[in-house]
Amino acid sequence: MVVGCGALGTVAATYLCASGVGHLAIADFDTIDISNLQRQIMFMDSDAGKPKCHTLASRLRMLNPTVRIEEIPQMIKEEDAERLFPEFDFIIDGSDNPATKTMTSEVCKRLSKPCCIGGVSEMRGQVLTCVPGSVFWHELFGGIKDSGFLPCAVSGVLGPVPGITGSIQATETIKYITGVGNLLNDRLLTFDSAEMAFSVFRI
After folding, report:
1. pLDDT band with cut points at 50, 70 and 90 for residue 14
2. CA 170 to CA 175: how far, in whole Å?
C-alpha cells in the first residue's frame, strides 16, 4: 500500500506496478496542481484539478493491466491505517508531511507491519525501512518537529530529488517481497543532491 500519490508515491507506485506487484493500493485525498508537476511526473498539465488517486490509478492500469490497482481516495488517518494496513504485506509512506509519517510509523510499529518512509526537502532526501524488531521512524526522530524535513509546500524541492527517493522506496519494497539484498532497517540513508553525496547512518 502506498500512502500519498504525490511525488514520492507516484514514483514508487509506478515502479512497483511496472515490476508486477500483484495487488497495489494507492491512497490520496488531494487533486492535481500544476505547481507540483515538476516532481509529480505521472500527471499532465491537462490533469489539473483532477483527483490524484484516480488519475494515477488509470495510468498504472495502462502501464500494467495484470496488476490489481485499488483506489483509496481519502486522507489516511490513524483509524483508517489501523483498519487498512493489516491487509497489505508492506506499507510505503510517500506523504509530504511529518505528521502523516509519524502516524504511519506508529501504526506499523503497533501492527508489526514493515514499512518504508521517505522524505524530501529542497535538494535532500532520506529513506528508512522499518521492520519488526528494528527502529521505527517515529522512534528515531522523536516527533513530527524533529525530522529536519519540512513539507515541500514550505521548503520547496528540486524535481528529481523525489524521483530518487521514491525509486529507493520501491527498491526496498521489492527487496522485502523477494528476500533479496539487505534492507535499510536500522540504517538511515540520506543524500544531498547539491553535493551528490550519499550517507548511511547505522542506528
Report:
1. very high
2. 9
The SS3 call for residue 150 is: coil
Cell of 63: 502501464
45 exposure class (CB count in 10 Å sphere: 0-12, 13-18, 19+): exposed
C-alpha cell at 153: 509546500
Strand partners, 71: 26
pLDDT over threshold 90, residue 66: yes
pLDDT at 165 > cutoff 80: yes
Check: CB of residue 146 under 8 Å from CB of residue 188.
no
The CATH number of domain 2-202 is 3.30.10.20:
no
Catalytic residues, by residue number, are 152
Q: Which helix (H) or strand (E) holds 125?
A: strand 124-130
Cα 142–chain centre separation: 20
Cell of 170: 520501491
Q: Name the 3-class secondary structure at 163.
A: helix
Q: What is the pTM of this model?
A: 0.94
Q: Counting Cβ atoms within 10 Å, is residue 136 exposed (0-12), middle (13-18) or buried (19+)? A: buried
Place of cell 507506485: 13
